[in-house]
Specification:
Blueprint lengths: L5 H8 L4 H16 L7 H13 L8 H17 L2 H15 L2 H4 L5 H25 L1 H23 L7 H37 L4 H11 L5 H17 L4 H18 L7 H20 L7 H20 L8 H12 L1 H6 L2 H9 L15 H17 L3 H6 L4 H5 L4 H15 L5 H4 L5 H12 L4 H17 L1 H5 L2 H14 L7 H18 L4 H16 L4 H9 L1 H11 L3 H13 L6 H18 L5 H17 L3 H11 L7 H9 L6 H16 L6 H15 L5 H17 L1 H10 L1 H14 L2 H21 L2 H16 L4 H4 L12 H8 L4 H12 L6 H10 L6 H15 L6 H12 L4 H14 L12 H13 L6 H10 L5 H9 L8 H17 L7 H11 L8 H17 L7 H13 L8 E5 L4 E5 L2 H17 L3 H10 L2 H10 L11 H17 L7 H16 L9 H18 L9 H11 L4 H8 L1
Antiparallel strand pairs: 1-2
């Protein structure tokens, strides 16, 4: 912590030497910028006093005063509140001193310095408040005081000195702090600023900026006054141009920042603006060049406001859209009046100048035409009459393509928007001849202006994508222009290069799709390949790779030499020395894709040379090994010779782990397709696996190495004994280490890669070796930390004779492992009746949860063997006869059902009558304890047939059905929905889901309501189209909202004399309802969820329910957990559905609940202190977040709540933990 020597500072600042005073200020600034403590007490007062003297006539030197200006902001942040107020008040008074205003000697400079220091203070406060909530909390009262001081100075109409700085300071503080105090000073700021706008031109811009920032936070009275003044001036159209422009800017700010507050005046405002625009254009349009800068600014502002109004109120102003369209058609032709002779412009356009050198720099009429196109573009986007407008647009768009560069750019945007609409060209642009449009775009493409050429390229790309057949008819014209621009911008230096390259690819793709002749495609493909041979940027390469399939398809159609050139180019790109790993990976994938697309058209000799070049490249470019591995893995024949594989194995030590994996994959694939490798190569692979793979910790490399050994053993039986002697004893230690170091799922993959090795050794080695191998496997399983994964090793040896006896003898004292191994062997062998009885009986044995899991796993594995189907029958028999253990046996049946689909297509579960029998038995003897097990079993049957389960549960989804059966069926439907999630639901299944959800009623039992809400939550997470069912919208969602409120019939209260005991049987139902809303709101982060929420509607009703649950006041929610949940959900809802305006009573109720939560006296030391602390944090978070949103942001009630929250020490923690 930097120390501040107050004595030394006072001595330095009081020295007569100017340099020493500056040095004292510099040292103080450096100390204040370090990690200092807050300055309190007399030290702060002394330092502040010394600094304030720098802003008086006692300090004659400007340089010292400038140094003080730099120190003041940092001092303000660390001193006490009292000194902060004193310092800020002094600066404010000094900045507005009357003596400076009257020009007394020296005071003007002091006033400017004080004003600048105050502005820097406000900027630093704003910066710190945005970065740290603790600083925001600490500085908010100071910001409030500074704003109050500045407003009081602004009220003095005679004070003009530093008035613009005062506006700047107020504006700077509005964003981080304004919502705390704006309701207090907003009306005063509004009146002062409006007065300055009308009478003091020099402060107009700053006043408008201040009102623009403050408008969303003004209370209703202040905003009404601002809105009335601005829009009344617009309707009158009175005053000079600059003053009228100021009111237009005010209107623009209000439409942009708080358009929901001007909806009532929007229609009249739009009509007035249209009339004013037509008046201005009519008055000045007859004379060339009559639009001066002032008139252009006014027209530009009017057009911006009109555009904003049309876009913000598409429905409310739809009746005026035709008037806006007429204005557009009038404005877009304004060039004819401005230039007097339209024929000259037409001649220039026909000559191909495309607006270049036609429109003089001093002419500003193009701005009018630019806004005409922008307005029309907005109308096309939002108006319900857009189709009619497009039909009546005539050829204005074509005319605009030959206009000023800025008009051309907005015309290109409009064309992109129009061409993005579905339909034929004649429907989209009925009055614009296609050939004329194409010629105009090609002229723009070849023009000298970069932005124009880029815009034309984008339109042409979209034109090719949406109307390829029409473009293909003009392919000769398009090809010649495109070839020229690609050649002129080759090398990747020009920023237009990527745009032109994208267009070339799109043209090539269009030609390929429309079946254009090969000789017409060849020049385009040749141009692309030609420019890509030059040094290009990474972005150009990525564009080229993204269209690789198109390039390869065209090369295949055209044939030699383009197919070979394409592969050569890709290989040269692969050999580039780049540090971009992502780009290298993309190049490798492109070569792989292109190679197999072009392989049928390539000669055998070329493929041999190409592979030779790739093998050679691996020695210089290690990343090439990944490409080589990908090519060999996809090929059904050997692309490499035995010598090339041997060369790769010789260099394996030179590669990193990724490269070593690829080489081992190449070896494995080469052996799999029958390539004969030499003994030297096989020994090299074995030694590498022994020394590097099995001794390392790279388990992915271990998997690949084992796979390579398996293929070598299969192809060379004599090699099997060599592997068994050297590798297996090391493998057990490696697997044991991996079981401790990796996750269960990944370790399962490692074990499964070792199973084929065990199997091939059993097939090719002697009986004695197999017996030793079995004992080693069982020993490894017995000591494994993850036996459920290691037991899969038995799959490689389970078919051998005598396995069951050896397993029984080995695991005499370890029952759970015995049954696990028994079940695994049972997947491949027929179990005796005694073994099946033991497996079933083991399910009922009491033990740990892990033992129960292993027992179920063993039953599932053994039952998945078709030869052991009697095991399933035994489970069903025990389930129907033993009511006490029925749930356990049903879980066993389910485990078998889950295992069977992956193994046997002819298992008993594929029999429809057998499945019906299971369903019948499950639903007949239901009791409460069996619901979850029975539902899980029913849902597992959907793996075989969804229709059977649907038909079975449908009859039990009636209001008159037994409660237990109904709950079971609903839970089964939820499990089945999770199984089929991600795919579209069949109509029958969707009907059952909907029928289940319709059971959600207040008259239903608690269990049915709870199960139905859980199903609805599962439906939300499944993202199914069923979310948009009208039945769910009209019946289910309202019922979910009803469950957010307490059900009085489920609430029992008992007065125990001084203490009231509450027994709330509906708590779980209510909690699940809140979880449903949470799932919906969280799922609404994606566009699909937003659509579902908007489709359901009832936002005000949902808001009322959440507000009701925000606190116990007014008979609201009493559980603190649900209160906290409701506050968070309310914030999410108001963010996702802005301006969900609650009714007045709801608005007031929320204020009452949050105020009570903030003002309650909490004793956090009691037993429930932690809960109370959490509840207060949620209340603080809710207040902070909703006051950022309308209508709370401009409500005096909630601004007072915000100021209360500001005083809480828990505020920073609440924002950090809950954001």
């Amino acid at each position: 912590m930097a120390a501040i020597d107050v004595t030394a500072f006072c001595a330095g600042i009081g020295n007569v030497d100017r340099d020493l005073r500056e040095m004292a200020l510099f040292d103080l600034q450096r100390a204040l910028q370090g990690p200092v403590v807050r300055l309190d007490g007399p030290n702060a007062k002394v330092i502040v006093d010394c600094l304030l003297r720098c802003f008086s006539t006692e300090e004659p030197h400007r340089e010292v005063r400038n140094s003080a200006v730099q120190v003041v902001p940092h001092l303000l942040l660390v001193c006490s509140e009292k000194e902060q107020n004193r310092l800020s008040a002094f600066l404010c008074n000094c900045a507005t001193s009357q003596r400076a205003q009257f020009g007394e000697k020296g005071y003007s400079e002091i006033s400017d310095s004080a004003a600048f220091a105050l502005k820097k203070c406000c900027e630093l406060m704003s910066e710190r408040a945005r970065a740290h909530v603790e600083d925001w909390q600490r500085l908010a009262p100071l910001a409030r005081n500074i704003t109050g001081l500045l407003v009081s100075k602004l009220q003095e109409s005679s004070v003009n000195i530093s008035r613009d700085n005062m506006y700047d300071c107020i504006s700077t503080l509005i964003y981080p702090f304004g919502r705390i105090y704006m309701c207090d000073v907003g009306i005063v700021i509004t009146r002062i600023a409006l007065s300055d706008i009308s009478s003091k031109a020099q402060f107009r811009r700053r006043a408008i900026q201040c009102l623009s920032l403050a408008s969303p936070l003004l209370d209703e009275n202040a905003f009404d006054e601002l809105r009335g003044a601005a829009f009344s001036a617009v309707r009158r159209g009175s005053g000079c141009g600059i003053e009228f422009l100021a009111y237009l800017q005010l209107c623009e700010a209000m439409v942009k920042h708080c358009h929901w507050r001007i909806v009532s005046v929007a229609p009249k405002a739009l009509e007035a603006l249209i009339a004013q625009m037509e008046k201005h254009i009519t008055e000045v349009g007859a004379v060339a060049g009559a639009l001066d800068d002032e008139e252009v600014g006014v027209c530009d502002a009017m057009a911006r406001v009109i555009n904003l109004l049309v876009s913000k109120f598409p429905t409310e102003l739809s009746s005026i859209h035709m008037d806006v369209f007429r204005l557009c058609t009038h404005l877009v032709k304004f060039v004819q009046n401005a230039y007097g002779d339209a024929s000259k412009d037409d001649e220039s356009a026909e000559s191909g100048d495309c607006g270049q050198d036609v429109f003089e720099d001093e002419d500003m009429t193009w701005k009018v035409r630019e806004w005409a196109v922008r307005l029309f573009s907005t109308l096309v986007e939002v108006s319900p009459h857009s189709g009619e407008f497009i039909r009546r647009w005539e050829c204005a768009c074509l005319f605009a393509l030959h206009d000023h560069e800025e008009v051309q750019l907005v015309s290109f945007e409009l064309l992109c928007k129009l061409l993005g609409r579905a339909g034929a060209y004649n429907e989209i642009l009925p009055t614009l001849p296609f050939r004329d449009l194409l010629i105009s775009l090609l002229k723009c493409l070849g023009g000298p202006k970069a932005k124009t050429a880029a815009g034309a390229a984008k339109v042409l790309r979209l034109l090719c994508a949406s109307h390829g057949r029409m473009v293909s008819r003009e392919c000769v014209r398009l090809q010649s222009v495109l070839e020229g621009v690609l050649t002129s911008h080759s090398g990747g230096v020009s920023p237009l290069y990527v745009e032109f390259l994208l267009l070339a690819f799109q043209v090539l793709e269009t030609m390929l799709a429309e079946g254009v002749e090969a000789h017409l495609m060849a020049p385009v493909l040749g141009s692309i390949l030609g420019v890509m041979e030059n040094p290009v940027t990474g972005s150009s390469i990525k564009v080229f790779l993204s269209y690789m399939e198109t390039v390869a398809g065209a090369a295949r159609v055209i044939g030699v030499p383009y197919n070979e050139c394409c592969l050569q180019l890709l290989l040269s790109l692969n050999e580039r020395n780049t540090t971009d790993a992502e780009l290298d990976c993309a190049i490798n994938k492109a070569v792989e894709q292109c190679f197999f697309l072009l392989a049928p058209s390539l000669s055998v000799e070329y493929i041999r040379v190409y592979m030779y070049r790739l093998v050679r490249a691996t020695q210089v470019y290690p990343s090439t090994i990944g490409l080589l591995g990908a090519l060999t893995s996809r090929s059904t024949t050997s692309l490499l010779s035995a010598e090339q594989v041997e060369q790769l194995c010789d260099d394996i030590d030179k590669h990193d782990c990724l490269g070593q994996r690829e080489i081992l994959r190449i070896v494995q694939k080469s052996l799999a397709v029958g390539l004969a490798l030499s003994t030297k190569t096989r020994e090299k692979v074995l030694n590498f696996v022994l020394l590097n793979v099995l001794s390392g910790k790279d388990y992915q490399l271990l998997q690949v190495g084992l796979e390579a050994l398996v293929e070598a053993c299969r192809m060379y039986p004599d090699f099997s004994e060599r592997v068994g002697e050297t590798a297996l004893h090391i493998l057990w230690d490696v697997l044991h280490t991996a079981a401790l170091a990796t996750s269960a799922s990944f370790y399962g993959d490692v074990v499964r890669s070792a199973v084929p090795l065990v199997q091939v050794l059993c097939e090719q080695c002697s009986a004695g070796y197999v017996a030793d191998l079995l004992e080693a496997v069982l020993l490894h399983i017995s000591s494994s930390p993850q036996p459920e994964a290691d037991v899969n090793l038995l799959e490689g040896i389970a078919r051998c004779d005598g396995v069951l006896d050896k397993v029984a003898a080995f695991f005499k004292s370890e029952t759970s492992l015995f049954f696990l191994c028994l079940g695994t062997v049972g997947q491949y062998q027929v179990l005796t009746e005694e073994c099946r009885d033991k497996l079933v009986s083991q399910l009922t044995c009491t033990g740990s949860e892990r033992d129960s899991y292993l027992s179920l796993l063993s039953v599932g594995r053994a039952g998945s063997n078709v030869s052991n189907e009697s095991l399933v029958s035994l489970l069903m028999e025990r389930a129907t006869s033993e009511a006490q253990n029925r749930a356990v046996f049903w879980r066993g049946v389910r485990e078998v059902a889950v295992f069977c689909p992956t193994r046997h297509a002819d298992s008993c579960f594929h029999n429809a009558s057998f499945r019906q029998k299971i369903v019948q038995h499950v639903l007949e003897g239901l009791v409460d304890d069996n619901v979850d097990a029975a539902a899980a079993l029913l849902s597992s049957l959907t793996l075989y047939s969804v229709e059977d389960v649907v038909a079975a549960v449908a009859s039990h989804l009636e209001e008159t059905s037994e409660e237990c059966a109904t709950v079971t069926c609903i839970v089964a439907v939820r499990h089945a929905l999770a199984i089929v999630s991600g795919g579209s639901l069949s109509p029958a299944f969707a009907a059952v889901v909907e029928k289940s959800l319709l059971l959600l009623k207040r008259t239903a039992s608690v269990r049915v309501r709870l199960a139905t809400l859980q199903l609805f939550s599962g439906l939300i997470l499944s993202n199914s189209d069923l979310l948009f069912s009208s039945a769910i919208r009209d019946n289910v969602f309202p019922s979910v909202l009803a469950e957010l409120l307490e059900d009085p019939t489920l609430l029992l209260t008992v007065d125990l004399g001084g203490y009231v005991h509450r027994n709330d049987r509906g708590f779980e139902v209510r909690k699940q309802a809140f979880d449903c809303i949470a799932s919906l709101l969280c799922n609404s982060q994606c566009s699909r969820g937003v659509a579902a929420l908007k489709y359901y509607g009832r936002h005000e009703e949902l808001t009322r329910c959440l507000v009701h649950a925000c606190g116990p006041q007014e008979k609201g929610e009493t559980d603190l957990t649900l209160c906290n949940h409701a506050r968070l959900l309310l914030v999410q809802l108001l963010r996702l559905v802005p301006r969900t305006l609650p009714q007045d009573s709801t608005f007031a109720s929320l204020h009452v609940k949050l105020k009570a939560a903030l003002e309650a006296k909490h004793d956090f030391s009691t037993a429930d202190g932690a809960k109370k602390r959490t509840s207060l944090k949620h209340a603080l978070y809710c207040v902070m977040r909703i006051t950022e949103l309308p209508p709370f942001s401009h409500s005096p009630l909630f601004q007072s709540l915000l100021f209360t929250a500001l005083q809480s020490p828990l505020l920073p923690d609440s924002l950090r933990e809950l954001s």
